Amino acid sequence: MEVRDLRFSEWPMFNRVMEDNPEICRMLLEAILDEPIGRIGEVMVEKAIEPRLGAKGVRLDVFMKGSGKVYDVEMQASPVADLGLRMRYYQSAMDTLSLGKGRDYEQLPESIVIFIGTQDLLHGGLPMYHFGMKCEERVEVHFSTRFQWIVLNSSAYKDLPQGRLRSLLEYIAVGYIGEDALVRTISESVARANADAVWRAEGVNMLTYIEDARIQAEIREKRGREEGLREGFEQGIEQGLEQGLEQGLEQGRQEGEKRFQTLMQVLYETGRADEAHAAVMDAARREELYRELGV
Length: 295
What we know:
2 domains, 9 helices, 6 strands
């Protein structure tokens, strides 16, 4: 059975392309930020950060350092709950990593968190969203925080003027290559990666396992909702139960899906892809792997 090619918007391919070619990282940042970017000195994919012992850790898709700045670029191919809170926590983790004990706050580097969505993660109809801090009473009053949050919606690429960013988002959305230098470089790197048949098959298998797990989670969620609503109705607390159940299930589903995806990535990256099937089918073995790998 022939295995399909992976797309740039899928995390195995996105991580490989960005890790293999720092020049693509630099050009991608230039297209998004619309400013010259100096040399990218360090690129780390799936960078794990634990702000303090016992705290909730984060795993950044692509973490980069260069020219006194740090960047986190996330490729998001599915809806995500609490995006603002997630970006806030990523920001705080990056700051903790960047500022060692005893150093002054002025030594914090400028940091930029970017989420590239294959759909509109904020449902505002815009191709690009910028977030920062401002004074609500007087917009001319401000102070320097040295951070930016950016969310991109590739599905709305047609709303952008012709240029590097539109070409990048169009490629992510529909696969059009055209003549843009960045897009052509990315597409060539994608083609080389897809030519590695073993790696491509493992990547597709990982995505398939994750998708299967997501579908099974949705089925369990639906059954749980139906059972919970029925019990709640019988007890006369239907409304309150529905609200609490919806919120709890959605939060749990998002966290569980992210945790499972991380497990699949760790297994893949550590040469243990053969254990992925057991992780999907055997809940006990999956829990063992979570504990063993610290996921």
